[in-house]
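Before relying on records like the one below, remember that each one covers exactly one chain. Contacts with other chains, cofactors or solvent are not represented anywhere in the record.
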Amino acid sequence: MRARGLFGKITLSAGLLAAASIILLAISRADGIFIIALILAAVASLTALTTGFIAWRITKPINRITTALNTIALDYPAPAVPIDVSTDGAIGRLEQAFNNMAQQLNRTETRAEAERTRMEAALARLADGIIMTNPNGKVVLANPAAMRLFGFQNEDVRGRSIIEVVRDHEIRALYHKCLSSGNQENRRVDSSSHFLHVIAAPLPADKPYGAILLFQDLTQLFALQTVRQEFVANVSHELRTPLAGIKAMVETLQEGALRDKKIATDFLSRINSEIDEITQIVSELMELSRIETGELKLKLRPHNLNLLLQASAGRFAPQTERKQQTIELKLDHELPAVNADAERIGEVIDNLLHNAIKFTPEGGTITLASMATPNAVNISVSDTGAGIATADLAHVFERFYKADKSRAKEGTGLGLAIAKHIVQAHGGKIQAKSTIGKGSTFSFDLPR
């Protein structure tokens, strides 16, 4: 602005000199004065033109630099565009300095963007949820784990308050406590369907944010602990009953019953049965463990599951005859072969059929059926027993669960759990349906 004002004054002075010369020329009468006036007019005009040209040459690059600076200020963080260097002089050095500044600004922004990308990638990989706020308590950042935990999208959460996002007053209170104390705070929070360990930490005072919240989802850990505790309790119960019986019978024999051959023989037979039951429990637990840990290797071959259904019906025919039950086979004779471990799938069918026989009264009917669907082969075992209550139906595939408490001594309660894991190991799914008083249907699908 100063350069433009200076050259404007020079131009104005030259113009005034030219005007004075023209006036002097007009009023002059002598030839000498006329010639002097003409020369002055020519010099003044030339001075005005030269000054105007110099002013234009100087102000043009300055105007370009000014325009480029305004563009950077308005478009940042868009890349700064360099300008052409028009001269080697002072103005040229100014233009080069601008280009150097633009390049440095672009490099700085590129590094900052790379850092942001790395930070976002790291946050995206974290299993723990993270939410960051500004000093006003508004959310400025949330990683995918936090989005899944609280059920929101990142674009929906920016600018909202903590309570709007987490919808939990305990978390909100912890957040404000960390801000007021200036220290890291943490606590466990039972938030709707999740059990969380929440850590709230204020950010340094020189940062433009308020605090950061870390959410560790302990739901699965606590569920596993509960399952472990229930498993230990169930195993202890299942083993304690036969062991208590064995101990009682051994003590009875030691107290003199051993001399009575009939009683001794009966007790020894019972002890043998109890040992068989314990052995079966241990064997099934080991098999279940191998399946769950992936140690059990399946021998997959193409098989027609109709053959497995027929074989299972033949094996259990003596039991159904004793109970005067009927086994019906409803087979899809165009059933396609599926890749399966015949021994393991046969074990699943035997387990389902054995349960159907056990819980179907005398004279009842058990139906073994196969059916092809577009994506799978379905096998089902239906009975006409008493049925299973809805509350029990959701738990029938759990370890040691026995829906019929009156028959708690029959079986180990592990058969359906093993069947479920075998089917899942084949990439299939197993399900149960039942109506009280009408019977139950257990079925599983294996992918075609």
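The longest helix spans residues 31-75.
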